[in-house]
Write a structure and sequence with these properties.
3 domains; alpha+beta; 7 helices; Jelly Rolls; Phage tail protein beta-alpha-beta fold; 3-stranded mixed sheet; 14-stranded mixed sheet
């Protein structure tokens, strides 16, 4: 069953969407969303479509119905949820809502996906006593019971069971981490994410799987790893040193390995490229307190800066967000990084506390 705080959140959100919430209820809803990023994402998605709708009353009904169905998914007894880790959550839809449903389907499915994975995260966190979590603006290094060293990046979680070093060594990851795995051929090391599983016997590699990112990246530094898919367990890819596999979260169930030059590949294999003479690569630069940029947009850089410095970055210009940059930052603070980026391609920015606005 839902915890009291979860029940209260859904009650208040339903009242807010229906326009029936009091000022005190709105304040409480705001407090709950600020405390829980998953709830905040659902709140933002539903209210965005509410304010951008041309038929407010019918969309309200659709949102209320979907919210109700989502709550039903959340409160189904545990014994009825067998296999949920491998199943796609499907929400039934009334036929009379079909005209508007396509317009909000993407955001609803995104919210359901985030909430579903969050449920799995919460399930494992409650059942696994070993949880390591970092906030935005911080990172940490840990040593697992088998001697494996893990660097955990900002805004990330890693957790494992008390019987970690039994037949297999299994960990769960949400966010980004670099693993230097202790060799043990008798006990495979397995990392679980919401989309892929990574198995190896002793190697060093980076995994980036933030829930809100469009892709999951696995970069191999040394050794060999096997990557399988949660929805296609019989399909495997083997990575060799200096290779990176990028998996799109929105790929279809019959996705195939795409060529590197394909316009929007769902699964892409690349070679890791050093950015400097000391062989810094963008995928693992964060482990050494650096920021590596390999021809990425200012919009993607902003996401990295938000996590690293715990700030919010807003764009007031669509041209600027698509500027591309390559380079390495090491000891520079946020203001210095933005100033250096300005020199390469000019733009303006304003800082107001922890909020930064970028314009042309």
């Amino acid at each position: 069953m839902l915890a009291m705080s979860e029940k209260l959140f859904f009650q208040l959100l339903s009242r807010q969407l229906a326009g029936e919430a009091t000022s005190d209820e709105l304040k409480k809803l705001k407090q709950l969303t600020e405390e829980n990023p998953v709830w905040n994402k659902l709140y933002q998605e539903l209210n965005y479509n509410k304010t951008n709708s041309s038929d407010d009353e019918e969309v309200k009904a659709e949102q209320a119905y979907m919210l109700h169905m989502l709550k039903m998914q959340l409160i189904v007894p545990k014994e009825e949820k067998e296999g949920i880790e491998n199943d796609i959550v499907r929400l039934p839809v009334y036929k009379k809502y079909i005209r508007h449903i396509m317009g909000i389907a993407a955001s609803i499915l995104l919210a359901v996906s985030i909430l579903t994975y969050a449920l799995l995260v919460n399930h494992h966190e409650k059942n696994f006593s070993n949880l390591i979590a970092t906030k935005k603006g911080s990172k940490t290094t840990i040593k697992l019971p088998d001697g494996t060293t893990v660097w955990v990046n900002s805004d990330s979680k890693i957790w494992y069971a008390d019987n970690f070093n039994s037949k297999t060594r299994e960990v769960w990851l949400s966010g980004e981490a670099f693993f230097d795995v202790k060799h043990d051929s008798q006990h495979p090391f397995i990392i679980h994410t919401d989309k892929i599983n990574i198995t190896d016997l002793g190697t060093a590699f980076n995994v980036k799987c933030y829930a809100n990112d469009p892709d999951i990246e696995t970069s191999l530094i040394r050794g060999k790893i096997d990557i399988s898919f949660n929805d296609r367990p019989n399909e495997h890819f083997t990575l060799h040193p200096n290779e990176k596999l990028t998996v799109s979260r929105n790929q279809s169930s019959n996705g195939q390995l795409s060529k590197i030059n394909e316009e929007e590949p769902k699964i892409k294999l690349d070679n890791l490229k050093p950015l400097s003479a000391d062989h810094v690569i963008s995928e693992t630069a964060w482990v050494y307190n650096k920021i590596g940029l390999n021809n990425i947009t200012l919009e993607d850089i902003a996401v990295e800066l938000e996590r690293r410095f715990d700030v919010e970055i807003i764009f007031n210009d669509n041209v600027v967000r698509h500027y591309h940059y390559t380079g390495v930052f090491e000891d520079e603070n946020l203001d210095e990084i933005l100033n250096i980026l300005q020199i390469s391609k000019p733009f303006n920015y304003k800082m107001n506390g922890r909020k930064i606005t970028i314009s042309q």
